[in-house]
Amino acid sequence: MNLVVQSPSPIADAHLKPLAALARSTQTARADDTLVRFIGADPLQRPDIDAYCGTHALDYAFVAPGAGLADFGLVAMDMDSTLITIECIDEIADFCGLKAEVAAITEASMRGEIKDFNESLTRRVALLKGLDANALERVYEERLHLSPGAETMLAGARAAGLKTLLVSGGFTFFTEKLKARLGLDFTRANTLEIVDGKLTGKVIGEIVNAEVKARTLRETCATIGIDPQRAIAMGDGSNDLKMMAEAGLSVAFRAKPVVREAASVAFNFVGLDGLLRLF
What we know:
It is a single chain. This protein is of the alpha/beta class and 279 residues long. The protein has a domain of 67 residues: ACT domain (Alpha-Beta Plaits, 2-Layer Sandwich), CATH 3.30.70. Helices cover 41% and strands 23% of the residues. The protein is built from 13 helices and eleven strands. A seven-stranded mixed β-sheet has the order 8-7-6-5-9-10-11, with helices on both faces. α4 runs antiparallel to α5 and α5 packs antiparallel against α6. The longest helix is centred in the last third of the chain and has 15 residues. The mean pLDDT is 95.
């Protein structure tokens, strides 16, 4: 395999020999000062590579020689804390003075400590009952920011012929705005019930949990005529694990430990455009 090591800042030459030795690689290639490719690396050395890169704030991935982004047909992304930097529900809750309470439930759910996502979401949404729906617009306009490298990654994926899917345990209010803004092909999320301009504290229809995320990835692959092994799935929380397991390549982005351990690749330091640089 090739071992690709990248960083948001220049990688010091002092790292090259230790990494080459750990990877059992005899040839290196520098793409630029923030990326090094170690040729003929031994993937069984992953634990040692992981420990070294974690200590030195480097991201790494084992990539098959000759693999290209165009080998894939779909990139599926989680929204909250993956494509965007915030958890929308936590920010909505801030408008009714309950951010800390809601964020604690969100964090426990994403870490996998609350096993029932439906219950977790239902509990959090119930706390929003009575909130003026214009809070959603304020969250979008004032607080929602794309994750570093998001637009570059999406442009590169499109250029390589991939379709894009945003599948979220969050809300359609935000996924639909992002779909229009970013030119995404497919979206799936939860719909908040709004009556007389206020949130009712309920979600309409099927909740997008881990199983629904995985099913949505499979269905989208079927729609565009590819095997799920030709999908890339990116996420950060435990409710992304089943979707990521369906895909041929899974990327943990600024993810919880349980997700980093399960993913093909973890980006703890570089932006989402690190995906393009793997190839």
